[in-house]
Write a structure and sequence with these properties.
Structural class: mainly alpha
Number of strands: 0
Strand content: under 5%
Number of helices: 2
Largest sheet: none
Radius of gyration: 27 Å
């Protein structure tokens, strides 16, 4: 008599992830990083410009 609880009866594929889904997640993460890096770069540039104006202000 076999045990009613076996991995084969659950039909679970643990070792083989869906590769296309993994690449899709990486692609979306890269898009998010690229989108935010533009804003971060602009913020740093604007902050540097304000710092230069503050240092050179001779009022």
């Amino acid at each position: 008599m076999t045990s009613p609880f076996t991995f084969s009866s659950l039909n679970i594929s643990i070792a083989t992830p869906n590769i296309s889904a993994v690449f899709e997640i990486y692609r979306l993460q890269l898009q998010i990083y690229q989108r935010f890096s533009k804003y971060i770069g602009a913020t740093l540039n604007i902050s540097a410009i304000f710092e230069i104006y503050r240092l050179t202000d001779k009022d």
